[in-house]
Known about the structure:
- Chain B: Belongs to the complex I 24 kDa subunit family.
- Chain B: One of its GO terms (molecular function) is oxidoreductase activity.
- Chain B: InterPro entries: NADP_DH_HndA-like, NuoE-like, NuoE_N, Thioredoxin-like_sf.
- Chain B: Keywords: 2Fe-2S, Iron, Iron-sulfur, Metal-binding.
- The structure holds 2 protein chains of 2 kinds.
- By secondary structure, chain A is an alpha/beta fold.
- Chain A has 4 domains: 3-87, Glutaredoxin, CATH 3.40.30.10; 105-304, Rossmann fold (3-Layer(aba) Sandwich), CATH 3.40.50; 307-397, Ubiquitin-like (UB roll) (Roll), CATH 3.10.20.600; 402-528, de novo design (two linked rop proteins), CATH 1.20.1440.230.
- Chain A contains 24 helices and 16 strands.
- Chain A has helices at residues 10-14, 17-26, 65-69, 84-87, 105-110, 115-121, 125-135, 147-156, 177-184, 186-200, 214-226, 228-231, 250-257, 286-298, 300-304, 337-344, 378-383, 402-416, 422-441, 445-450, 458-466, 479-496, 500-504, 506-515, and strands at residues 3-7, 30-34, 46-50, 53-57, 76-78, 163-168, 204-209, 235-240, 281-285, 307-308, 311-312, 314-321, 327-332, 354-359, 366-367, 392-397.
- In chain A, the strands form 4 sheets. Chain A has a 5-stranded mixed β-sheet, covered by helices on one side. A 5-stranded mixed β-sheet of chain A has the order 13-12-16-14-15.
- In chain A, a hairpin with a 6-residue loop joins strand 14 and strand 15 (366-367).
- The radius of gyration of chain A is 25 Å and the shape is globular.
- Chain A starts with a strand and ends in a 21-residue tail after the last helix.
- The model of chain A is unreliable at 446-459 and 526-536 (pLDDT under 50).
- Chain B has helices at residues 2-24, 31-42, 50-57, 61-70, 90-93, 97-108, 150-159, and strands spanning 82-87, 114-115, 121-126, 138-140, 143-145.
- In chain B, a hairpin with a 2-residue loop joins strand 4 (138-140) and strand 5 (143-145).
- At the A-B interface, helix 1, strand 12, strand 16 and helix 18 of A face helix 2, helix 4 and helix 5 of B.
Amino acid sequence: MTRVFVSRDMASVALGADEVAQAFAQAGCDVVRTGSRGLFAIEPLVEVETQAGRIGYGPVGPQHVAAVLDGSHANRLGDVDALPFFASQQRFTFARCGITDPLSLADYAAHGGWKGLEAARAMSPQAVVDAVKASGLRGRGGAGFPTGIKWQTVLDAPAGEKFIVCNADEGDSGTFADRMLMEGDPYCLIEGMAIAARAVGAGHGYIYIRSEYPFACRTMRVAIEASAHLVAPFTLEVREGAGAYVCGEETALLDSIEGKRGQVRAKPPLPALKGLFGQPTVINNVLSLAAVPFILAGGAEAYAAVGFGRSRGTMPVQLAGNVRHGGLYEIGFGITLGELVNDIGGGTASRRPVRAVQVGGPLGAYFPPSMFHLPFDYEAFAAAGGLIGHAGITVFDDSVDMAHMARFAMEFCAVESCGKCTPCRIGSTRGVEIMDRIMAHRVPPSAVQSGPGLLPSQEHGSLSKALYSRSPSRIDTSLDAQTTLLRDLCDTMKYGSLCALGGFTPYPVLSALDHFPEDFGASPSPDLAPVKEVAE
Amino acid sequence: MSAIIAIDDDRAMAAWVQDWTARHGARRDQLLPLLQAMQRHYGHIADHVVPTVARALNISRADVHGVVTFYHDLRRVPPGRHVVKLCRAESCQARGGAAIDRLAAQRLGVAMGATRDDGAVTLEPVYCLGLCAIGPNALVDGRPVARIDAAALERIAVEVGA
C-alpha cells in the first residue's frame, strides 16, 4: 500500500487538504496526516513515500490522485527538503513540523522527542535554569526578556504552589508560528512546559489558546491526554480564549484564566512572583517553551552558537500578507529584512512593488524598502523605531494607503482595549478621529502633482468643528495642527499606557507618518518631510 | 404563557448549570469555560441566566455580567443560523480584504457585525485566524476558508442560503 503524507494544518485544510486526503484514502492509500511544512504556495501538498524518500507534489487537488501516484503530475517538487525555501532554513524548533504525525507518540520519540525532558530530569533544577540562561533564549512573544532569568526568579520564589502558563493567544496579524507548532508538533510544547515545571518546581500548567484557533485547541487537548503519563506528576490543561486580543498580554491572560475580565494588571508585582492565583508563575510564549527541548537535548552552546548580537538562536519568521512565498521560515537572527521579503518571500504576490512591511503584528512599525538593510535582531529593530514582536512580517504592495493603515491601528486598539487605562481606552478613539480629520484634508492624487498640497481648512471646518461642540472656535483643524496633535497623542499613549496595546499602537501610526508622509497629505517635496529617510 | 416557558427554561438552565459544575467544578476560574459551554449548548448567554450562573459559582451577578460583556466571543442574543467570520486584520487587508468585506456585506445582505433580519446569517469581523499568507480568510460555521474572491464568496453565500 502506498503511504502518502497530507497536512492537517488549519491553513492546509482551508486550501482543501481534507478533500485531497480523502481522495487518496479512497484510492487505497495509507494517508498520514502531518503538520504543515510551512510554505503555503505549495499547499495542499502531498508527499508520496518511495524508495528514494518522500516525493512532494503541490499544489494538488482531489482530482489529481492518479497523476500523483504515477509520478506524472506537473507540480512534482521532488524532495521537499531540497527546495530552496527549506534548504536554507535552520529548523531547531520546527524540526519535526510537517514531517511527523503530530499525535503519534512513536513518531515523536523516533524523531528525538523527550530527550530534553530526560536530560532535565537528570539535572538539578538550578542546572536546567542555567542551561536556559546559557542558551541566550529570549522571550519569543515579543518583549525579548531573557527566559532563563524569568525562570530563576520563579525558582527562587518560595511558595507551596507554582504554575507554568503558556501564552498561546497569538492574536497578531501576520503571525501563525504558535498555531503551526501546536497543530504540527504539540508534544514539543508539552515537553518544553514539563522541562519548565521541572526547573522551577511547578505542578500544574495551563495553555491559553485563542478561540480563533479551533484546530490547535483540539490537537493540544488530545496530545495532553495522550502524553499525560510521560510528563506526570506534572499536569496540563487547555484554556480557550474568547476573542479578546488583549488577553495576549500576560497579566490580562492570567486574569482571564482566573475567570475574570481580561484586564491588564499593573506591574509590579511581576507574574514571576505573584502570578496566577497570586502564586509564582512562569508565563512564556509557545515558541519560547518549544525552543527549550532542543536546548536541553542539543546543548545550550549549540543553540547559542546561532544568532546575532544579543539575539541568540533561531527565530521562526512568518512571511505573510501580500507575499509570493508566504509561510514559516526558521532562521538564525541576523538575516536582513530585505533578504526575508525579497529573496525568501519572493516579493509581493500581486507582482507589484513592495511599498511597506509591517513587522511584529498590529503593534509593530511599518518599514519602507529603504530600511530593508536592517538585520533581524531585537536591538536593531528597537533602534530603528520598531520591534520584532512575534516575528510576523506582513507585506504590502504599492496600492496600500498608509494613512488608512494608521487609522486602522487606532481603530483596532479602540476595539480591543481592555479599558483599564485612559491613554489606551480614550486615546485610541481620539486617534481614529484625528486620522479621519487628516484624511479629510487629503487632496485627490491628481492635484498632488500639479497644485499646492493642502486644501484651505475652512472647506472642512464646519464638519470638523461640529465634533468639538464645547469650544469650536479654539480648535485648529488644519493639517499641521492635527498632525502635531496626533504625535502628541501618540506620545501620551506610548508613555502613559499600562501595557503594550496602548503603548505600542503609536509604532504603526508614527512609522506610517514618518516614512510615508505623502499619504498623510504632506507635500511630497523632501525639505518638508519630517524624517530623512523617505520611501522611494 | 411565555412566563411559564421562561420559568421552565430557567429550571432547565439551572439543572444544566448544576450538571456542568458537578462535572467540572464550581471554582471561580471555571466561569469562562462554563459560559463557553453554555453558549455551545444554547447558542447564546441570555441576560436572565446571569443570576443562575452567579449562584452556581458563588460570585456576584456583576462579576458574571462583566465577563459576559467583556469577551467578543460571548453572545447575549442568538446568532443567525449560519455565522460567517471574516478577517479584517492587516495581512488580509494587504491581500484585498477590504473589498471582500464590502462585497460580503452586499452579497449576504447584512452589515458587518449584524444578523440578517430573517435570521439566516450573522456576519462578524474577526481579527486574524493565523492563515496570514493565504488571505482573505473566513470561518464559515467554524470551517476555515482561504483566498476568498468573488467566486468563493458566492459559494459561501449559496452555502448559508443567502
